[in-house]
Specification:
The chain is mainly alpha-helical. The chain has a domain of about 60 residues. It has eight helices and six strands, in the order E-E-E-E-E-H-H-H-H-H-H-H-E-H. It has a three-stranded antiparallel sheet with strand order 1-2-3, with no helix packed on it. Helix 2 runs parallel beside helix 4, helix 3 packs antiparallel against helix 4 and helix 4 packs antiparallel against helix 7.
């Protein structure tokens, strides 16, 4: 059953004719009996008042408040999905493609909820952007660990090369600054400066493509996730016809039971 209030979103995909007996029908939206004339919203039976509500709802765009609501809901879903992906990869040592697709669904429906089901190209782009970010940001902790390990290895090599093994020995005043340029000493992820986190984020965004064609299946999985997020937020549309006389309503059950049906 669809909801014309807009709170639960617009749904017009399920065929439904509510019959009350005696040749009368009920509105699929408000569930009230329709005495004389009914309308069709796609394949749903509607009274005149509910038809008008559907038309008014479709004509009203989400606006800035709706965009912010959709962005916030989508961001929460994306953050949760990224965390789940990271935890499974880190502790279960698995990268399950189904998680990425689930993230696409979660983000898609979160964005759709924020728009009250209206959708549109702007929200489709928002959904796929958040879905992609949810997937790639799950790589950031591993990339950060790699930077820290590289820094440690580099520091150990410099310490062995210097006389006396002083890895962090200060450059004498007046010394060759070019030869003794400052090194970034990282002992843990907490030592990573903000600017390096920006680089880590950029690397994470490119990570699915850095492995080249060997990550072809990864591209397919990410593509499916993005497609689902896109599809869920397509613009709501309804084919509205009528009015029709209630006496002309035909029971789907009767049609199915008719000879040759």
């Amino acid at each position: 059953m669809a909801d014309t209030s807009g709170e639960a979103g617009l749904q017009f995909d399920q065929a439904e004719v509510n019959e009350l007996g005696g040749g009368s029908v009920a509105c699929a939206f408000c569930m009230q009996p329709i005495p004389a004339e009914y309308h069709q919203v796609n394949q749903l039976t509607a009274c005149g008042a509910c038809r008008q509500k559907v038309e008014d709802t479709l004509a009203r765009r989400p606006g800035l408040a709706g965009f912010l609501k959709a962005s916030g809901a989508g961001f929460v879903a994306a953050a949760a999905g990224s965390l789940v992906w990271f935890l499974i990869a880190r502790f279960a040592h698995m990268e399950l493609g189904i998680i990425a697709i689930a993230v696409g669904y979660a983000v898609g429906y979160a964005v759709r909820w924020g728009t009250q089901g209206r959708g549109g190209w702007l929200y489709q782009l928002l959904a796929i952007a958040l879905t992609y970010l949810a997937i790639v940001t799950s790589y950031m902790p591993d990339i950060a660990d790699g930077f820290v390990q590289s820094s440690r290895d580099s520091g150990a090599g410099v310490a062995q090369a210097q006389p006396g093994g002083g890895a962090d020995q200060a450059v004498p005043e007046g010394g060759d600054g070019a030869a003794a340029s400052p090194r970034l000493a990282l002992q843990s992820v907490g030592d990573i400066p903000a600017l390096l986190w920006v680089l880590i984020f950029i690397v994470a965004c490119a990570a699915p493509f850095l492995a080249g064609a060997s990550n072809f299946m990864g591209w397919i999985i990410i593509g499916i996730a993005l497609f689902e997020a896109w599809k869920i937020n397509k613009r709501a549309a309804a084919r509205i016809t009528g009015p029709y006389a209630v006496s002309a309503a035909v029971s789907p059950a009767a049609v199915a039971a008719a000879p040759g049906a």
